[in-house]
Each structure stands twice: as structure tokens, then as C-alpha cells.
Design goal:
The protein has a 6-stranded mixed β-sheet, covered by helices on one side. Strands 7-18-8-9-14 form a 5-stranded parallel β-sheet. A 3-stranded antiparallel β-sheet has the order 15-16-17, with no helix packed on it. Helix 1 runs parallel beside helix 3 (77-91). The protein has 2 domains: 3-129, 3-Layer(bba) Sandwich (FAD/NAD(P)-binding domain); 150-374, no CATH class. With 379 residues, the protein is α/β, with parallel strands linked by helices. It is built from 6 helices and 18 strands. The protein has helices spanning 14-25, 40-44, 77-91, 175-186, 210-216, 247-252, and strands spanning 3-10, 30-34, 95-97, 101-106, 113-117, 120-129, 150-153, 167-171, 191-194, 204-205, 208-209, 236-237, 243-244, 256-258, 261-266, 279-283, 356-360, 369-374. The longest helix is centred in the N-terminal third of the chain and has 15 residues, at 77-91. InterPro entries: Auxin_biosynth/cation_transpt (IPR050982), FAD/NAD-bd_sf (IPR036188).
Length: 379
Amino acid sequence: MSEETEVVVVGAGQAGVAMSEHLGAHGVPHLVLERHRVAERWRSERWDSLVANGPAWHDRFPGLEFSDVAPDGFAAKDQVAQYFSAYAEKIGAPIRTGVEVTSVRRHVGRPGFRIETSRGGIDARFVVAATGPFQRPVIPPVVPDGAVAAQTHSSGYRNPAQLPPGAVLVVGAGSSGVQIAEELRRSGRRVLLSVGPHDRPPRRYRGRDFCWWLGVLGLWDAETPPRGAAHVTIAVSGARGGHTVDFRALAADGIELLGMTTAYEGRGGGGERGGADGERRLLSRPRPESGVPGRSRRGPHPAPRPPGADVPALERRVARQPRTSPRIEHGRACPSAPVRRLSVLGPQRRVDLVGCQEELTDGPEGVIVELVLVEVGEE
């Protein structure tokens, strides 16, 4: 006989656990189905050194503090996963792990849904999809099949030792891309960072974290923007105690800043070619709203300028040795849903491809990009 309940919640990450707390507080019978473990993606699909971008006082559930992180500190990924599990246990969330939902369909002739799982069927009046907006990494055709350069998504990146030798191009300069680029640079890698438009608020202002300011200004309660509205992500970092993302500081640390990657093409009759034929990389110029250099698009105060961090205009020729270059066909990571064209990223995403061309020529300072790492669209 089929099992019945009022609500089935699919996914036991942050949203699924939070939904269970609300349903339980109102006495609503429910089940939470998780195909792996609670907070699985924090455990197995994030890099080793990842920390949350919000302070612990902010990134928590009601009624439970982080036991091993100061309120103004930033939790590491393993601490976040342990916290989710501890909270689920505290509220007695009816979570079933190791249960994969294979299909959901409406009942015919009566309200509710039929949920098929790896352990049988369940009937429920309501279904909550708490699987997250970026659960399926999608890599655009940055590197063609058979190219010398390797390619990975940030969900598959763990640490610098994992990567083959050589320079790394990180495509995407949001919170994830910047954290990874900084880590790679500290490990001694040559790092090139492809930068697009971002809002860059100060990490702290007048002694308060920017998350606090978003709250008192009512920005957490903003209405959902209309379909098709432009969306620019916030770039801020919780790494190393939390800091403002300042691309001048990244450049001063030796990270080479490039504009948005739009294409990488070999010229000539036989695919990728070097030597006399040369190659062409299509990059956009870093614009003021991308934070290179300047101020946050909506922020009234310029980012602090660390001593020695002045950098020349980011218009440069990048030399490359022959037969080592990938073809970069749109350097933006996509949201979770698969797409047919990179120009279609869903109602809350955009591709802003404005192009300036830079010749790639051979020379003694050639850059050999051995790996292209594509950042997740948002956290």
C-alpha cells in the first residue's frame, strides 16, 4: 500500500531543512527526501577551502548558533554541513537520506501528487522542490574536444594540487571565482581572471558587515524583479576573515585581469593553429561597473585603494606559445537548468558580450593556459 503524507519536500539542503522547520512548527505532516546526505553539495561538490560569504550570525537558522564559529566569523564548508545536520536533528526533521525522487506527477481526478522514489511511491497533497537553483553544473563550450587545455567546473575543483601544471584561466569573477583565483595564486600558479559586471559592496562599513546593512535598508525584502530584468551578482568574500573584493588588490598580488571572455578561436583551415597564422582571443574591455577599477555600481564610496595597487589600464596583449590555446566560446557559467544557447540563461541571468579583440602572438613571455576553470554563476 502506498505511503501518504501532507507535504513531500525534495532536498535536505538549507531550503529543505528550513521548510521542515516551518512545517513542523505548524504541525503539518511531511517528509523530506534526500538522495544522499543532509547538505550533500556542501560536503562533496565544493572546494576544500570554501567558506561562507555571510557571517555566522547571518547564515544560520533561528534558534541555533554555530557552535564553533564566532558570530562575526565565516564558517568553512564542513562547518556549514555539520551545522545543517545538527539543526535537522534539533528540530526532529523527518528526513530520509539515500532516497532519490525519480518522478512527480499530478493525480488524475483528485488533488495531490504521486511521488516515485528509489524506495517506492508516496502520495502527497503538496510537493516542495528544495533542490537549489544551481544543482546541475553546465559548462559552456569553452574548450573544444581534443584541445590541449584541460577544463573543469568549480563544482569539480578541490585544491591547487588537483590541477595539472601550468597557468590557469578562471572564467568568472564572482565570490567563487575570486576565492579560487586567490588560492591558486597563493599556491604559486600563474592565474588569469576573466572579469564581468558585478556589484562590489564593501565587506564592512562603519563597523557593520554589509549583510547587516542590507537588512536595515530593507533590501532583503525586495520584491522579485520582473522576468527579463537585468541581474548583476554581488561579489564579496568571506575568505581569510572576510574582505572586500578589490580587483586592484588582486592585480597587485599578481593575478592578471582580463575582460569578459566571449570566444577563443583558432584561425586557419585546420582547427587550432599557432605559428604564422596566429590566433585571436575575443575579450570585452573591463567596464566601470565590473569594478576594474572604480566603485560599486550602487555604492556611494569607492573601494579602498591599497598601497601600490594602482594598475595600468587593462588593455594588454597576451602572448602565447603555439598549439597550446583553447577556444573559449563564451566564458560564463550557466545556471542549473540546461540551455540550448548561452544567450538564454533564464529570467534572472544575462550574458553581456561586448567585444574588443586582442591578438595572441608568440613571444618569450608566452602564457600557456593548461586549464580553464569555469565559475558557478552564483552561490
